[in-house]
Amino acid sequence: MARLIVDAEDVAVRLTWREGLVARCREVRVPLADVQAVRVEPDWWRGLRGVRLTGRCRPGRFCLGERRHAFGRDFAAVRAGVPVVLVDLWRPEPYARLAVSVPDAEQVAEELRRRAATSIREL
């Protein structure tokens, strides 16, 4: 299962090697200062926007990879039955949103909000 990791300066989505094969990348990184909003979506499919660009989606099971829509591109690593942390970004390059399923979504989202607020104050 994908992991959402908050470093000192970045937010990283790390995929397992199998997920990496499907999504065509093992890790996605964006600057912590680019985080605009963080929220948790209990229904995994509501975090998806647009159409699949790369990766694979299996209806009712999972969606891995990039998705294209009117606002840019999103990176999704979501699974059915697991809540999704949605990270909206200020700059839509390379992604406008990260959507990642994590079992402890509320904890991860709160940590990300706290770190992002600290990062913005330091700028």
Number of strands: 10
> Any idea what the shape is?
globular
Secondary-structure content class: alpha+beta
| Radius of gyration from CA coordinates | 13 Å
First and last CA, distance: 33 Å
Residue-averaged pLDDT, rounded?
91
The poorly predicted ranges are none
Order of helices and strands: EEHEEEEEEEEH
Number of domains: 1
β-sheet strand percentage: 35-45%
Give the proportion of residues in helices: 10-25%
Reported for the largest beta sheet, the result is:
7 strands, mixed
Query: In DSSP terms, counting alpha (H) and pi (I) runs of 4 or more, how many helices?
Result: 2
Question: Any overview of this molecule?
Answer:
By secondary structure, the chain is of the alpha+beta class. The chain has one domain. 20% of the residues lie in helices and 43% in strands. It contains two helices and ten strands; from the N terminus they run ββαββββββββα. It has helices spanning 17-23, 105-122; strands at residues 3-6, 10-14, 27-31, 35-41, 51-52, 56-58, 62-69, 72-79, 84-89, 97-101. A hairpin with a 3-residue loop joins strand 6 (56-58) and strand 7. The longest helix is centred in the C-terminal third of the chain and has 18 residues, at 105-122.
